[in-house]
Write a structure and sequence with these properties.
Length: about 230
């Protein structure tokens, strides 16, 4: 389980210093699917960064099965992210000099997965396998970033607006594949999105506003990627 307690995060300094996360506490169950909703500026992406170990909080703890990663050394935190965490960003962050195959392989090699080709195929990228990022559309680049994260077979997959660059048909198919793979590999999903419809797929939904959690609920009945609105 991921357990955050009284997380506070600030940006800026002196008179320009402001609090972006205001004492957030939450639990995220293993193998669950949690969606974090909120308007731009609500702090949801910053929360995702803190929960995943990309950023450290100013105060509070972020515990994975009882170990506070906020207290890890830089080297230990880097190793933790490498071994346990997959991240799909709003930006693609593909290496421009590597083709699709090598970008995805780079993710797979972090955890020694040699069967990454099936992820490329499942995301409809087989014909683009040897194309460079600049030869792909924005939606195709996003699918490569999804494939790279999934190829690690992470324990926890964090997603920041994963369907933002995708058309409806592709977005639904990508979400469907992620949930299918979760059923097989039993990883935890934590997703930030503006698309409130996606929350209908999740087990748990968290609503944020102005750096605070303002609501939480569980879906008693969950929809598939092909049943939600768009």
């Amino acid at each position: 389980m991921i357990k955050a307690e009284n997380i506070r995060k600030y940006y800026g300094s002196k008179e320009n210093r402001f609090e972006i996360l205001k004492g957030i506490s939450l639990d995220i169950e293993d193998e669950g699917f949690t969606v974090i909703l909120g308007a731009s500026g609500s702090g949801k992406s910053t929360l995702l960064n803190v929960l995943s170990g990309l950023e450290r909080p100013e105060s509070g703890s972020v515990s994975y099965n009882g170990e506070d990663i906020a207290r890890y050394s830089d080297d230990k935190l880097t190793a933790f992210r490498k071994e346990k965490i997959g991240f799909i960003f709003q930006q693609y962050y593909l290496l421009p000099n590597l083709n699709v195959d090598k970008n995805v392989k780079m993710g797979a090699e972090l955890t020694g997965n040699r069967e990454y080709a099936e992820v490329i195929d499942a995301l409809g990228l087989s014909e683009k396998r040897f194309k460079l990022p600049h030869e792909l559309s924005g939606g195709e680049q996003q699918r490569v970033s999804v494939a790279r994260a999934l190829a690690k077979k992470p324990a926890v997959l964090f997603l920041d607006e994963p369907t933002g660059a995708l058309d409806e048909e592709t977005g639904r198919s990508v979400l469907n594949y992620i949930l299918k793979l979760q059923g097989e590999l039993k990883f935890t999903i934590v997703m930030v999105t503006h698309n409130a419809n996606i929350s209908d797929m999740a087990k748990n939904v968290i609503r944020m506003n102005s750096g605070k959690i303002v609501g939480q609920y569980r879906n008693q009945t969950r929809k598939t990627a092909y049943e939600i609105g768009w």
